[in-house]
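ingest -> validate -> predict -> emit
validate: passed (alphabet ok, no gaps, 483 aa)
predict: started
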Amino acid sequence: MAQLWGGRFTKKTEDAVFEFNASLPFDKRLFEQDIEGSIAHVVMLEKQGILSQEEKDIIVKGLVGIREDVQSGRLAITHEYEDIHSFVETVLTERVGAAGKKLHTGRSRNDQVALDMKLYTRQEVIRTAGGIYELLETLMNLMENHLTTYMPGFTHLQKAQPTTVAHHMGAYFEMFKRDSDRLHDIYRRMNYCPLGSGAFAGTTYPLDRSYTASLMGFEGPALNSMDAVSDRDYIIEFLSALATVMMHLSRFSEEIILWNSNEYRFIELDDAYATGSSIMPQKKNPDIAELIRGKTGRVYGALLAILTTMKGLPLAYNKDMQEDKEATFDAIDTVKQCLYLFNGMLKTMKFNAGTMAASAMNGFTNATDAADYLVNKGVPFRDAHSIIGRLVLYCLSKETGSAGTSPKKISIEELSIEELRTISDVFEEDIYEAVSLKACVEKRLTLGAPGQAAMSEAITLNKKYLATYWIKENNNNNKGDIL
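emit:
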C-alpha cells in the first residue's frame, strides 16, 4: 500500500526496508493514545475555524468508531501499515472519505508520535505508582502487625543489633515511598503537550495549543517546538525510576531468598508463590523472588539503551528515536508484573517469630546494649567496648558440641553474675534486664528507631502519606475533556 509520504517518491519501498523502518508491530500499543490525540486535534481545528463543525463531527465519529471496533475485535491492526498513525488515518479516510484527509492538518508525525508516547508514558507512570501504593499498604500492615516480632539486624551480613520485623519493613516502606515521589516528580515535569509543534518549527495554521493541551489534561503546551518533538527526557527519567524500583525489589528479594533458606528459616513462603524441583521432592524454591532479582538487569538494560540512543542525536527529530519504544514497553510491563507478584508474595508470607527471636539472641546482638549498660554505670565507652569484647570472647570459648555437630552457642545473658564479674566487677543483677531482647529494642525511642513508640509515630506519619497519596488526585485528572 502507498505510504502517507509517498508523493515524493517514484519507486516502491524495498520490502526489507519497509519492514526495517516500520514500527507498527510495537507502536500499535499506542492505538488509544493516537485516537485520543487525533480527536483533541480535530476538536481544536474546528474551534479555530480550520475545519467546519460538520467535518469535525464526521472525523470524530469515525475515530470513535475505529476505537470501538479495534477494542471489540471487529477491526484488526494489520501489518501492511507502516505505523499506528498511518493505520488510523488510512482506515479513517476509507470510512469517512475526504474529511478523513483533513485529520493531519497542522500536524506532523513528529509531534504526533511525541504526543502518543507522552500520553502513554503518563498513563503508565500513574499505573506504576498504583502498584507501589498497593505494596506500601502491604508494608504498612506488616509494620502494624509486627511491632514486637523481634529479629536480628545485620551489617556486613553479620548479626549486629536486635530490631523488629516492623522496623525492617519500615525501611522498605521508605524506599518505595521515595520511588513514588520520583514518579510524582516525573509526572509533573513531563505533563506538557507537544502537539502543535509540527515537524519541529510549528505551523502557519492558527492552532490553539493551550486548548489542545487542556483537552488532554496537560498543564499546558511545550514552549519550544524543536525540543518538544525531540525530547525523550521523560522516558529516560521514567526508566531510571523503574530501574530504582527494581533495585529495591531486588534487594528485598535477596533478603527473602536468604530468609527462606534452611539456614535462616525466618519465613515460610506461601505455596502459591513458590515452586518445586523436578528431581528433588523436598524442595520449595523462592522462584518469584529469584526472577524479580534477575529481571532487574533487564530494566537496567532498557535505561542504558535509551541513554545510548539519545546521546549523539542532533536536533530535532531523528529516526533513531523510534528505538525509544520496545525497551520502554518491556521495562514497564516487567516492573508492573514484578510489583504485582512481589506484593502477593509478601502478603501471604509467614514470619517464624520464634526462630527470628532466637537468632537475635544467639548472635550477640545485645553487645552494644551491654556496653551502654556499663557506660550508664560510669565506665568510659571505649573501656566498656573493650570489656564487652572480652566478654564475647569468653562466651565463644565456652561453646560446646560433639564432633560433627554445631556448637551450642552461649549468649551474654546466659552467663552467671559471677562469670560476668570476672570480666568486670561493675556488673550487677540488673544486667540481665538491660540486655534482654525486649529492652534492647524498646529503649531505642528516637524517631526512626525500632522501639514501639518510635515505630508508632512513623506508622502514623506514613498513614498520612498514604491517605494523601498523589495518584488519588491525579488519576482522575490526567484525562481531559475530550470523548
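The first strand starts at residue 150 and ends at 155.
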